[in-house]
Every structure is written in C-alpha cells, then in structure tokens.
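Go through this:
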Amino acid sequence: MGEWVHVGRNRSFAAPFCCGRAKAWDHTWKCGDFFDEYEWQSPNIPASFDPVDICNLLGNSTVLLIGDSTMEQFSATLVNSLWDGKCQNQITMGLSDTLVGRSYGNMNRGKVWSVLVEENKPDIVIVTVGAHILSDDASYIAIVDQVLSEMSEMQVIFPNMKFAWKTQSPGGCTKGIVSPKNATTAAIKRNFTEKSYGQDHYNWYEFYNRDLMLLNRLQEIGIPSLDMRMLYSRSDAHISSQSGRQLMRGTIDCLHMCLPGPLDVVGQLFHQLLLDFNLRQ
C-alpha cells in the first residue's frame, strides 16, 4: 500500500554516495544522467527518516545482510543512510548468490548463508535470493523452505537472533516510471520483460510471482519481510534505463539501480523492521 509521489527536486532524503562514506562496489551504480524526482509514501512505513532515531532504536545490535549484488546495493544504501546516526559500522554484508551454496544456472558466488551467520554471530539476519535462481519455481521455493527450516534450527542455538527476508529487486528497463500509484499494476503489466536491452535472457518476469510465494511462506511462520515490491514501478531507475548505456564489455544492466535513487526507501523499511521486532518482544 502506497504510491510514488512526484516531488521534483525537493526529495526529503537521498542516501549520499560521497564524502568518504561507504561506496557501492561498482562505481557504475552512480548514474550521472539520473535524478529521482519521486518519493515512496506509504502508511506502512515511517513518514520521515532520521538516522539518529534509527540508530538509537538499533542500540548495540549488529546486522548481517546476506544475498547477491542486489543485496550489496541494499547494504551500501543502508550504511550511507545511517552514517549520521553513527551506527553504520554495525551493518555487515555477506555475499551469497543462492544462499545454499548450489548453482541454479547463473553464478554461485559467496558462502552458504548459515556459514556467514556462524562466522559473524549477528543479532539480526536479513537474507534475499532470486536473481541467480534460473531454474523453475519449485527450485526457488525449495531454497526458501530449506533456509526457513535452517533459521528455525539456528534459533535454537542463538535464541535471541532475529531473522527477516527481503523480497527481490525487480528487473527491467523503461524510459519512465510505471504506474506510480500502483506498483502491483506495474508488475502485472510486465513492462520489465520487454525484449529490449536483452531482458528476455533473464528470469525477471518470474520475480513478482516468486515474491508472492515467499511472502505467503513468511506469513505462515511469522518471519517479517522487507517488502521491495514498490520498486516494480521504478524500471526507469536502473543503470541502463535512461540512455541504454553499456557497462564493461558492452553489457547492459537493467537489474541494479542508480544510486542514490528509489532504493533510498530502504532506510524507512529498515526503521519499520526494527519497530516490528520491538513489538514482537
């Protein structure tokens, strides 16, 4: 529930990628030809962003984010967002393309998610998976079920550890924002599956249905989510959306987002997650 509201150049917040702050691992994520003129407004997240308030809420807790390069973008944005609250060093990123250490058609970088947890022993664990699962839906949901089962086992060992799951970062390139008042409509339209920029080579058209499958599983067992489905409207904000610009070796990127940009909403989503965790105690 919510909508992208046009605010022009008067955005209330943008996670800065400058001034000695944490940087995304790939410099191409900063798009010189893109300025986001929209803000996500929803009754389901705090209306304003204050890194000091969020860091006070986080306290001394540590956070481990586990996933692929889209989670690395999430991590870099969150770290930069919290910089002025001085808790940015409590956020750690662990690379794990498939979470379970098996290949499903497109890379399998990083460690198994549970190994990363055992190595870091964080207070809060947030995972995501999807872009590297090119096989069928049955394989995807089997991974989800395996990780959820392992989370239950891990909670016996670390009873105070909290778990959450981030939905996928949608893929696809369009010239303009799509259905800003209804991201579900944007997803159903499947603008992000048009065969421009080689988008038919990927599994982006499966993301939305898999998000629904995941959210259903999480609801069944009571694990909170960081719901990124508002980004289905923002296929205008990917690296190659505006100019079709190519990266190294002539590749096109219609998955990773321009930073700063719509992904700045992660600060408010993280704030809401901490509030939810406090309510569950």
In short: The first strand starts at residue 3 and ends at 6.
